[in-house]
Amino acid sequence: MDASVGKTEAQLVAARREHLERLRARSSDPFAQTKYPVDASAAELVARYAFLENGQDASAEAWSLAGRLLGKRTMGKSIFGDLQDSSGRVQLYVRKDDVGEASFADWDDLERGDLVGVRGYMFRSKMGEPTLHVTAFSVLGKALMPLPDKWHGLQDVEKRYRQRYVDLIVNPEVRDTMIMRSRLISEMRRFIDGRGFYEVETPTLLHVAGGAAARPFVTHCNALDQTMQLRIATELNLKRLIVAGLERVYEIGRIFRNEGIDTTHNPEFTMLELYAAYWDVSDMMEFNEELVARLVSVAGDGGDELAHGDATISFARPFARIEYFEGMARYSEGKYTRDGLLDATEAQRILRELGLPPSPSHGHALDKIFERVLEPHLTAPTFVTGYPVLISPLAKRREADPALADRYELFCAGMEISNAFTELNDPDDQRARFEAQIAQRAGGDEEVPEPDWDFVRALEYGMPPTAGIGIGIDRLIMLLTGQRSIRDVMLFPLQRQHG
Q: Quick check: is 65 in a domain?
């Protein structure tokens, strides 16, 4: 029976500290060693020696690896254990006759969570388990806090996010998701770099945070004695670089929006923004579709389908397309038409009909109607095109229909994944739209940003025809890894302060 059963956390910690002192008394201080010569990982060894038959060994080849002890089973003069490193787990077999009586005694004071370095050779046990036969080992660290019960793991959701370091130790599927996130972002960079783009960095602290409809976080710069804002987008500075002659630029960076927290929103998140001179929105749509299809292939082991709950989503190209007003009419059974939605008074009436609170501006009302009427139906990857100009303040107008912007958003699984448009490069039109936003702010819409008049000045130096895109990386990773909450793809999501 597990000796820890029924003990309080304080009793378990006290016992671990006693074990620490016993190790130190035998000159095996877990915190004394500064390095360990690792030359293999658990997953590598399991894969390399998959050919071994039950009872067969590969004693001619010795390997060193290190990791966390996640289980220990003593059987007289031998011990079986489980070692976990960043790649996975491998079983250990330790025999007193191999490591010596003094070293074997150290195992009495090792427990779940401790860090060890081991050297030995691989064999397959009689039960068919790939196992490292340990011939030497070192204690590399002592876990003074007990890990959660090995059968139930760390189940409390808030505690999982608050103590993510424990969550990653005991829930391997969480670690796998984070590793996949890293792989996908690396693949995204390779894809973009291979098409001639430069990765750049733009400021996080701004005098005016623009480029999106969101409330900024406000802080104070002591050196300048000025109020500053954390960026809500990288758009305006990236387009300044297009003006400057860097014709293809992108940034993968942290964005800060002082908004609510739910399954698809976190106030701090990661976004890709990318701009290409001499492209239009159709070029960007092709790029967007190709990028997503490539990432789906990486996440789906070469296929073009991904599991989503009990269903499967196909990312076979081309993705579906629907016009903004066509979709609003279709999913309202013809009630919400272009003429009605473009009328500010009628838009507020529709909000009431849908049981939604009144909005501070016409554009805000349209966003809320869209979220209720059309967005939930966009499960398969779908480009929604032809957005109204009044909710697209930085996008170029359609030549054939000036009330609409040359813009699309990509939706999948009921979430917005990306937003792209042919960029507005007429400084006079941009100035007029900023002036209209001043009126919206005065009307109480706190998400409308302050105008960035220096950006208008930049446009007056001439910006070439350009297309831009913003992709919410966290939501995209949610989609690609089958997660239902944005917090499950972020290592450290924002939490209310504990205690």
A: yes
